[in-house]
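Researcher: I've been going back and forth with a colleague about how ABC transporter substrate-binding protein might be arranged in three dimensions. Neither of us has a model we trust, so I'd like an independent prediction. The organism is Paenibacillus lautus, in case that matters for your notes. Sequence below.
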Amino acid sequence: MAKRFNRGKRMWRNNIAALACCAVIIGLLSGCGGKAETEAPGGDQEATKTAAVETSGKAGSGQASTEEPGTNREETSTKEERTVTDELGHEVKIPAEVNKVFAPNMEDSLLKLGVKPVAQWANGKLGHSYLQEELDGIPLIDFSGGLPSPEALMSYEPDLIVLHTETYAADGTYEKYAKIAPTYVFKNASGNVEKSLSTLGDLLGKASEAETALKNYQQKASEAKAKLSSVVGDKNVAIIRFAPRGVSLMGGNYLCGYVIHQDLGLGKSKLVENENAANLSLEILPQLDADYIFVINAYDQGTERMKEMTESPIWKGMPAVKNGQVYEADNEYWLGSGLIAYEKIVDDVVRSITGQ
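Model: Here is an independent structure prediction for ABC transporter substrate-binding protein. You can compare it with whatever you and your colleague have in mind.
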């Protein structure tokens, strides 16, 4: 009897020990399973966090995310919003990201920055013809009857509006547009295209693109200037613009005149020595001191006046005409205001005068 009791007691102890051992093993397995879910192979939790952040960044924008957990993206954008002062003294709040810009008559500069506008300037149904290949599909807004109404502009939902001249902002237009989106106004962006391009690049977060475009243009202009200098020397170059309202001699302060007389350093007539432009007639024509002449039929609307002057004996007796140094320029980009137009003008001048 005693033997059976002792044997039973030993069996009970063995069962208790076995149960305790199983409990320990189950606990260990449970703990290992929990770690497997939260740690990278090797048990390095920091490596797992880093990998998760990098993966999140690559999935979004190709860069590692810099946001802290719980950061609100909208709050981050608000913090990055900038306030700048435009050339008329308006304080303008520039959004952290500008995705939709409306900048009529600055399409050339926008394209140089790799940006397409939500809509483009047009005269009737015609936009800037030399840009239409790149602006294919961009809606045209007719400016022939004035600036678009606020209601028409609102339909494009711009993030930023840029007006290239202060006349665009007159008569309450600025106040109306500023209610639609932040509105930046230049006094005259066409007066110094290189400066206005830099400003536009800063507004759109494209400063590096603007810097690269300017360097490339300046290099191109410098090389052209050297070629032209050896041929033209100290002789003058004139630009005559034929339009329905009259004939003018363009000065060196804007558009193609700026390119020829400032960027390329070619001399200009004393008639526009200190002027943006001067009226030109058959009576004044003999005073034109220029050995090279470029003529522009403005938007193909100056044909009648151009024919009247160029068929006159006075015109035919001018040295530039006798020497075959009169060149008809493309009216679209020669009156364009941007580096794309300027580069084309440089090519035209070099090819016409040097034959290269």
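Researcher: What would you highlight for our discussion?
Model: I'd start with this: Residues 2-38 form the longest helix (37 residues). After that, consider the following. The CA atoms of residues 123 and 143 lie 6 Å apart.
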